[in-house]
Specification:
By secondary structure, this protein is an alpha/beta fold. The protein has 13 helices and six strands. It starts with 7 loop residues before the first helix and ends with a helix. About 4% of the residues have low confidence.
Length: 282
């Protein structure tokens, strides 16, 4: 049976396992660690490479071995490796539940990472980003009820304590791209104004004249308190979830450039109200 494809979470878990092995006293090899937990060197190599999704009981046993715990009454669930398994691998094991939630395979890793992040940034060019969509607006984009519910559920991040720093840059074109009838567009503009005025997020509008040669598509960036980052980058036929430092840095650098060219918060609010009146008059 082929191994599952490497995903950001399995890679991150593997990096923890590799680091813990390398921190053990002496030059402990993958084969020696495998012998401690009665598996072969190849399996340890797969775990460290992020090319397999191990079970929780194995993560606990491996965690004990890597930390040198010999107490048989210690179940290993307090080890660093098992905690990493809970954070990274456990959510991936529940494939069926995620499928029912209607999340695309290439995307579903991102919302979990985003929900536990300390900073969230997004850029959208043709439609308002999913995190900021009203239900009515979203229903004209994702008619499937399960996908719609998953998108709306993502907005629970606005009500967390503490709430992460959330910001979005919306290209002017997205505000005029009519997704649904005028009342839907008016409601969407009202929602963006409300989110901004209540301080739930920083909302900035990128005018049409602001040209960026490097811009290729929309993206979301989530940053955790410990500095780890993940980005979801959309393209014409889908999207890419990545933790690759170069890809994420490319997005963060581009976002910083756009902030310098976008309208400030006050001017963005005025612009949203103007667009709202234009949709209302249609």
């Amino acid at each position: 049976m082929p191994n599952p494809p490497r995903v950001p979470e399995s890679i991150a878990f593997g990096q923890v396992a590799r680091r813990l092995r390398q921190e053990m006293p002496g030059r402990v090899t993958q084969g020696e660690v495998g012998a401690m937990v009665t598996v072969g060197r190849v399996y340890i190599s797969q775990v460290e490479a992020g090319s397999t999704l191990c079970r929780g009981d194995f993560a606990a046993r491996l965690g004990k071995a890597l930390e040198g715990i010999t107490d048989e009454e210690n179940d290993g669930t307090q080890t660093e490796l098992y905690k990493a398994w809970v954070e990274y691998i456990k959510p991936l094991k529940d494939r069926k539940k995620e499928s029912q939630a209607g999340l695309l395979v290439t995307y579903r890793n991102y919302p979990r990472f985003e929900y536990t992040s300390s900073q969230v940034r997004s850029f959208c060019s043709m439609i308002v980003g999913g995190l900021f969509q009203t239900r009515e607006y979203a229903s004209h984009i994702v008619p499937d009820e399960k996908v719609l519910e998953a998108r709306v559920a993502r907005q629970a991040i606005f009500h967390q304590t503490p709430r992460p720093m959330i910001s979005t840059i919306i290209k002017e074109d997205a505000l005029y791209n009519c997704v649904g009838p005028p009342d839907v567009m008016c409601g969407q503009m009202d929602h963006l104004v409300d989110v901004s005025e209540r301080g739930l997020a920083v909302v900035q509008i990128l005018p049409k004249w602001a040209h960026l040669a490097e811009l290729r598509g929309d993206f979301d960036i989530a940053t955790k308190a410990d500095g780890r980052q993940m980005a979801y980058i959309t393209h014409q036929v889908g999207g890419l979830t990545t933790t690759d430092p170069h890809q994420v840095e490319s997005c963060t650098a581009l976002y910083a450039q756009m902030q310098g060219k976008a309208l400030n918060v006050a001017d963005s609010l005025a612009f949203l109200r103007k667009v709202r009146k234009e949709h209302e008059s249609r």
